[in-house]
Structures are given as structure tokens and as C-alpha cells.
Amino acid sequence: MTRRILIAAFAGIFALTSIASGNGFNLNGLGTRAQGMGGAFVGVADDFSAVFWNPAGAAGFRQQLFGFYAADLIPKATYRLRYEISIPEVYPIDARTQTSHYLGFLGGYYRQVGPKIVLGLGIGTPSGLGTTWDGGDFVTTMGGTAYELSSKIAVFSFSPLIAVKLSDRLSVGATVNINRGNFNLKMPGGYGDLGEATVDLGQYEENMNGWGIGATFGVLAKPIDTLSIGLTVRTPSTVSFNGLARMSNLSFYGLPDTSDLKRKITWPLWIAGGVSFRPVERLLLSADIHWTEWSKLDRITTEYLDSAWAGLMEAGGADVRVLDWADKTQLRLGAEYTLDATTVLRAGYYNDPAPAPDTTLNVLLPSHTFNALALGVGKTIGDLQLDFGLEYLAGKDRIRYADGGIETYGLSIVVPSVSVQYRF
Question: What residues make up the domain containing 45?
Fold first, then answer.
């Protein structure tokens, strides 16, 4: 019974691990100042992270500007399997991921080229994370073999930008996003029917990369000096992945142990609106609402180019995966307080609901509803701005009932970050 539960869960990972920008595996924003304000930055967008949040914000830059942001994502996931009744030779599972570090970054450069035009370039990682489990925690479900269980995912974006100040109160901006995606995956292959026998397929490994293109459009309006309203739209981007899969035990049965594979993943439409307001000179308040069209991720198809692999994966249902994700909306709040001429303090909060239903949960790409808290501090030294931030994402446990077993998934993420910005 345990074996059936875990094999079903692992089989679903073939497609799911490709969705780097899904809830829980998304960086949820770039830039330490924005992070410290809970990512409520669409209506602010006045530092080097504008290329991500709202390209229209760059239209206000009157000096050359360079900035760099680095973050360390430290996830901690748990998986527990218990049974309502005791079953001989079937054991519960209590697994925790190893401590891992996944680095994210953003670099941005901007230069005014005319009275009303600013050009820029951003290079960063809008998505990237992963999990690493101790295979020994799952040996009772994998024929006594401690297979490796890990995922490492990253998306790199190269984004040239143009921003135009249409008037003193209205700016627009746009970027072209050239996206490079790659990931590594290790997991048990599960069981397959080869001839008249059902056999353990061994260790499965997959390495893929690919390119896609999209765009971001932004508008920033300032009806009065103390109020700013922003709107950002990031278009869908389809990344065409190519790579190589390996299954360790296939050669024992006269089959090739590797196959080339192809997969197309569409990062969905993202629309965000934001408002920032200064009730007093020292205090900036901001609020955002972000909507992502996750329902477009209905199903994912993988093409295995080797004919033997194609037949095996089709028979096991691993070539097409139904996701049934739902559109989700994030609410974000932020505040920045100027302590003195060189120091600012920040705080923020956001709620990030899980797009995946219980039926698509798995241990290599957990999907949780997060309540996130963030704190930050900034220090100005002449034309140099230093920012430090810390974010904690508390994931709500998810419980699933299957075949007499009770599965509990947990996840929390700690994200320290630092940014350096210089105007010249």
C-alpha cells in the first residue's frame, strides 16, 4: 500500500518539476528594498529593480544607475506518512530535506539617453529553488533502495528596457524578457511492465535547458506628489526545453538507459497593480495586488525521443501530466520609514496562496499557501545605497488522504538578501 502511494507521487514529478515559477519555487520578487517592503513595489519602482517590478519607474532616473541584488533561498520541507490502522511490514515515514542554499540575483543598469527617455538592462533570476531529500527516509517504499531525491531549478532572464516620461505625472516602460531555463532532477523511476514482468526501473535522472521569450509592460502615474499608482503586465513565455534522461536499470533488460527528451512549459500571464502613499514626509506606505493565470498550466506533455522510452512512459502515464492549477491572487503590504538622513527601516507582509490542488502534491515540488513576513534596513553613503533584508515564508501544512494513509506536507523558506546601488 505504501509503495503504491509513493510511486504515484514520484511519477507525477516528471512534469511538475519543470515549473520553476510555481508557488513556493518562485523568488516572489527581486531587490532587497522591495523585499523589505513585502514586495509591494509596483507603485514605487524607483530603484534598480524597476526592470522586474515596473519598467515605467525607470523613466524617473536622471543619473546613470547600477545596482546588484543577491539572495540566498534556504527551504526546509517535511513529509510525513501515517496510517489510520497498523499494517504489518508497512512503516510510517518522517522525512526532512537537507539544508540547501539556492542563490538568486538581479543586476540592473540604466542610462538617460534623452530628456524623456531612459534605456536599461536587467539580468536576473525571477525563479529558482529546489529540494534535496535523504533517500534513506523512503527506503521502505522503494524496494529497500535509497534512491537520490533532489531538484534544482533556475530561470535566468535577460531584459533590455526602455522607459519614457510622457509628462511630469505619467510614465510608461517596457522590457523584452529573454528567458533561459534549466534544471536537474533525481528521483526513483518507479515500476514498469517489461515483457511479462513488472520491474524496478532504478534511479531516474533528468537534465534539461531551453529558451523562451516574453515581455513586460508598465505604467506609473503620480496624480499628486504624495501618491503613486502603478500597473505591470508580464506576458506569458513558453520555454522549449531539450535534454537527456537516464534510467539506471533499463540496460539490465536490453533497453537503452538514456533518451533525449523535449518539453514545452509556458510561464503564465502576471498582472500586478500597486499604490504608494506618503502620509508624512518620513513614511512611505505601499500596497499591491498580484494575479497569476496559473489555470493555463492544465497539463504538460513530455516527448521522449527514444521509441522504447516513449512506449514505456506512455504505458505508465508519465508522458502527460494533468496539473489542474488554479488562478491565484497575492495581497502585499509594505512600509518604509526614514530614521535619519542616511538610514531607513522597512517592513512588509504578503499572502501567497497555493495554485496546486491536493491531487498534484509531491515531495520534489511542494505547493503551499504562504504567509510571508519581511524586514529590511537601508544605509546611504553619498551616491552609494546599501540594503539588507530578511524574509520568512511560513507555509501552511497540507494534508492528503490516500489508500488508508495520511500524508502531511510542510515547507518554510528563509531568504536573507543584500543589495548595492550606485548613482553616477
Answer: 2-423
pTM of the model: 0.88
Q: Render each residue's pLDDT in the chain as its tens digit; 424 residues.
A: 333 333 333 444 333 333 333 343 455 789 999 999 999 999 999 999 999 999 999 999 999 999 999 999 888 889 998 887 766 556 688 888 888 888 889 999 999 999 999 999 999 988 766 778 888 887 765 556 788 888 887 789 999 999 999 999 999 999 999 999 887 889 888 888 776 678 888 899 999 999 999 999 999 999 999 999 999 999 999 989 999 999 999 988 889 999 999 998 888 899 999 999 999 999 999 999 999 998 887 888 889 999 989 988 888 788 888 888 899 999 999 999 999 999 999 999 999 999 888 888 777 777 889 999 999 999 999 999 999 999 999 999 999 887 778 889 999 999 999 999 999 9
Look at the chain and report how many structural domains it folds into. 1
Look up residue 257 and give its DSSP letter.
Answer: S
The residue among 80, 64, 165, 203 whose CA lies nearest residue 121 is: 64
List the beta bridge partners of residue 246: 205, 258
213: domain CATH number?
2.40.160.60
What are the Cα distances from residue 107, in Å, to 125, 128, 345, 370? 10, 16, 23, 27
